[in-house]
Amino acid sequence: MQPRDLSDHVAYEAGRGIEEVARELGRDPSEFVKLASNENPHGPSPAATVALREAASSVSSYPKAAHADLSAAVAERWDVSADQIWLANGGDGAIDYLSRATLEPDDTVLVPSPGFAYYGMSARFHHGDVREYDLEREDDFEQSADAVLSAYDGDRLVYLTSPHNPTGTTIPLAEIETIAAETDDDTLVVVDEAYGEFADRDSAVALLEGRDGFDARDDVAVLRTFSKAYGLAGLRLGYAVVPDEWAEAYARVNTPFAASELACRAGLAALEDDEHVARTVETTEDARAYMREHIDAHVWESEGNFVLVDVGEASAVAQAMQESGVIVRDCSSFGLPECIRITCGTEEETERAVDTLNDVLESAGTGSEVSET
């Protein structure tokens, strides 16, 4: 007995963790700092930590009330109905729900390249095919309606990422509206805003609700997560904001109790902890500016909680930095073998990462030579 043919499926390659690297190198975990997975350098919202302790004794019950409470709170935050909030086990869970709700066998999904691998993975899990549109390095990975529409061919789902991972670029709402207007009536445009709190952009939720001068649309959905700005990556909590017409589909595609009791209670508390989010965003802005100013290589402008750096040979540079105690993301798996991605850390972590990278580049004889590429 064998599983179905999975030869077209690729395994998701996550950033390496401190414990994993420390064991591999036979060193103490305290020697390392991890800036590979775009996690919150300040940890979880303190309010969420309190909520987790208080909710621990209730995990013997299914999270029906907590699920409803969080859906209502998120809906209030976005000024939509609670039925438009599809809670999920992380943003990737919400991607799966949208795949289930839309894809028929052999439908196609249009995804950015480079981009988040799980868009295509979810499509293939649900018997869809994957097509790509390119974000060009020569154009600083600019996102535009022209780039998407030139590749579009009646695809059922079109994924946009704003801010984009791993480049940090965003796409204006007017460009998103153009994409939605010029694609077929049965095409859903999905805007992944996992890093939205860090960007100086309005959310595409405005397109669903007809705000800010836009007409209301029923062909746009927005993804959000509690993993980044709220610091709850380990709890796996995310959601989609869907058109009102899609509300009833949730009950037919979600897993029973899509988010856990602890995740929902922590999410409720984190949602109200504006101070923690503000501190996180400020740290991110400072770190992005510091890295762009002090790294001796080309650093692309970013609106995420990370920067993309051209280092010439990503694998060798990431390995050398890791051996020096700083874990960053080799972007070869994104199709960018000359780039690394560095998460915005605390002031101390960011300065250490910059110093370590510059030392590695100097030892390799590259340094500022690549800053013009």
From TrEMBL:
It holds the Pfam family Aminotran_1_2. It is an enzyme of class 2 (transferase). Keywords: Amino-acid biosynthesis, Aminotransferase, Histidine biosynthesis, Pyridoxal phosphate, Transferase. Pathway: Amino-acid biosynthesis; L-histidine biosynthesis; L-histidine from 5-phospho-alpha-D-ribose 1-diphosphate: step 7/9. It catalyses: L-histidinol phosphate + 2-oxoglutarate = 3-(imidazol-4-yl)-2-oxopropyl phosphate + L-glutamate. GO terms for biological process: L-histidine biosynthetic process. Its EC number is 2.6.1.9. The keyword Transferase applies. The modification N6-(pyridoxal phosphate)lysine is found at K228. Its cofactor is pyridoxal 5'-phosphate. GO terms for molecular function: histidinol-phosphate transaminase activity; pyridoxal phosphate binding. Gene3D superfamilies: Aspartate Aminotransferase, domain 1, Type I PLP-dependent aspartate aminotransferase-like (Major domain). Belongs to the class-II pyridoxal-phosphate-dependent aminotransferase family. Histidinol-phosphate aminotransferase subfamily. This is Histidinol-phosphate aminotransferase. The lineage of its organism: Archaea, Methanobacteriati, Methanobacteriota, Stenosarchaea group, Halobacteria. The gene is hisC.
